Automatic annotation (TrEMBL), chains A, B:
This is UDP-arabinopyranose mutase. It holds the Pfam family RGP. The lineage of its organism: Eukaryota, Viridiplantae, Streptophyta, Embryophyta, Tracheophyta. InterPro entries: RGP_fam (IPR037595). It comes from Asparagus officinalis. GO terms for molecular function: UDP-arabinopyranose mutase activity. GO terms for biological process: cell wall organization; UDP-L-arabinose metabolic process. It comes from the Eukaryota. It is found in: Golgi apparatus. Its main location: Golgi. Keywords: Cell wall biogenesis/degradation, Golgi apparatus. GO terms for cellular component: cytosol; Golgi apparatus; plasmodesma.
């Protein structure tokens, strides 16, 4: 990747759920050290944060949150703390990586630079209107396959880059219980555009996005009661990803999935069975959520990510609010998020 | 792949465009020899066909075509000869591989069995209604990602398996001219379901399908004037693939793309520039074809692949026939194809 990266356009956001980030930061030093880091300390965490020397970083704590946004109904605890970083960043690109992830190795045992790959994904066009069987046509050595219409080859801006995981794949609690020893060792050397109107579950573990294009669509809107601190208990990123995909489809922006991989460590010990009690609620709710998102069509008057989120919030309230009160709360959080986005945005200016 | 393959359910179809198939057949011996082969000799080829000993095969020539189907407006010359094999087969699964392709090696330099991989793709479910970021969830070591709705995990029958190409990728003539030395060396170790309502260009080079489910949808319907004998001059398989995708979407069947790879030899020497003159017409027509196929919605009364093709033929005539007479001829060929399919099918009984 011979990409021109402007370091000043990038924030790396780390939601710190563990007090000692030393091993995590050291593992990423070669790839993180040229960028600015925003570290958000989980507001529920009492311990002091340990970060090694030599990183250009700023830490935000619970008291910073209160100072900057005052009272809000949005809950930034656990994995949701990262969203506070999205709010306070003023950069074009955001890369967000969970603090239990490490740089992955490719099949030739070369260490891979997840940050550079996300930026490449975001800076090359996406092709959501027709499927290229040769995967990413903008990768070195690849192109569009015979039969791909030339008018669609210019593509559209890519707004969201969803990376993947080696070692511990991102399974839900039931799958984790069924396959406790399964490890993902398959390195699929591909990036592809998720087609228009195809819904997918984005994960918050390893993600890049263009904040200027779709920032407000990355929403910590949906929380189960007592949502936990291990990934398989969380629904916030699944909901957030579907909101973002809807917004991208509507605004004619692209979403990519595939490279980069990160190596993901053991998640939350042996608690999958415990977690299942919490997540089972989420698993059931997905059966309502997916048909809803598949049916959403936004009005032409929605021309920004903020507009789109406000319109979606209305639809969530109207169509899903009657099914379960959790959706009413999600709709409220979506509206509140747009309010916060605008308020914090105007402070930056 | 610990798959139960019933050899009697499979025909391998070889469209013979070269008289000497010795090197081709010897390269594939380990993978072809347990199956029945149908070899269709390009009706334009004058030379005697050379096939090595030890294969259970049947050759069909121009005179067999005349005997079996009599007079028809469908042109079986060049790459289209393979479609005659689809017509006379009575097996459930068809695997079709161009005679300039050889078994591919994976990154560990193991030779790969394209036939077995196509059959695995066709015998495991497809998941067109929601995107799994972990690729094929039915592959060993993989599963559905967190957030994938459980109700959609059972999937649907897979009807079409589109394989890929190492060495010479399947580019069109303009791309081939721009990148004459480019070789595809990227082995992407993945199979994925092409999502519902996402159109893609299927290639006839390396293909498997379930003949019982969608046989009549694999149509040699669309031919440019003077369509050639090198792939980049052909449009028949691109049109055919879009018809098949529409039928699969309508009948709630799946289409997969990815593995198996084949190693593809040099195509037609240095004639890309010559070919461009012919294919340029196809390149321009794709700009009409793609929006048309993206807009096709079949009526509920169409419940078989034959029904779907007849309905599509009507739409092609009505909507595209006015644009260019080549589409009127394609519509006629689609109707004729269904007639032939039924006629040859009743002979089999």
């Amino acid at each position: 990747m011979s990409f021109q990266i402007n370091e000043n356009e990038v924030d790396i956001i780390i939601g710190a759920l563990r007090p000692d980030l030393t091993a995590f930061m050291e593992a990423w030093r070669a790839f993180f050290s040229k960028f600015h880091l925003i570290v958000i300390k989980d507001p529920d965490m009492k311990e002091e944060l340990k970060i090694p020397q030599g990183f250009d970083h700023k830490i935000y704590t619970k008291s910073d949150m209160e100072k900057i946004i005052g009272t809000t109904s949005i809950n930034f605890s656990g994995h949701s703390c990262r969203y506070f970083g999205y709010l306070v960043s003023s950069k074009k690109y955001i890369i967000s990586i969970d603090d239990n992830c490490f740089p992955a190795h490719d099949p030739n045992n070369n260490i891979t630079d997840a940050v550079a790959q996300h930026l490449t994904n975001l800076q090359t066009p996406a092709t959501p209107f027709f499927f290229n069987t040769l995967y990413d046509p903008y990768t070195k050595g690849a192109d569009f396959v015979r039969g791909y219409p030339f008018s669609l080859r210019v593509g559209v801006d890519c707004a969201l880059s969803c990376g993947l995981w080696l070692n511990i794949a991102d399974y839900d609690a039931p799958t984790q219980i069924v396959k406790p020893r399964e490890r993902n060792t398959r390195y699929v050397d591909a990036v592809l555009t998720v087609p228009l109107q195809t819904m997918m579950p984005a994960s918050g573990i390893n993600l890049g996005f263009n904040r200027e294009l779709i920032g407000p669509a990355l929403i910590p809107g949906f929380r189960l009661a007592g949502e936990g601190k291990v990934r398989w208990e969380t629904m916030e990123d699944i909901w957030c990803g579907m909101c973002a995909k809807i917004v991208c489809d509507h605004l004619k922006l692209g979403v990519k999935s595939g490279l980069p991989y990160v190596h993901r460590g053991i998640e939350g010990g042996d608690n999958a069975m415990e977690s299942l009690k919490k997540e089972w609620e989420g698993v059931k709710l997905m059966e309502e959520i997916v048909p809803f998102f598949q049916s959403v069509r936004l009005p032409r008057t929605a021309v920004t990510a903020e507009d789109c989120v406000v319109e979606m919030a209305k639809m969530v309230k109207e169509k899903l609010g009657v099914v379960n009160p959790v959706f009413g709360r999600a709709a409220d959080a979506m509206e509140e998020w747009v309010r916060l986005w605008k308020a914090v945005g105007s402070q930056k200016i």
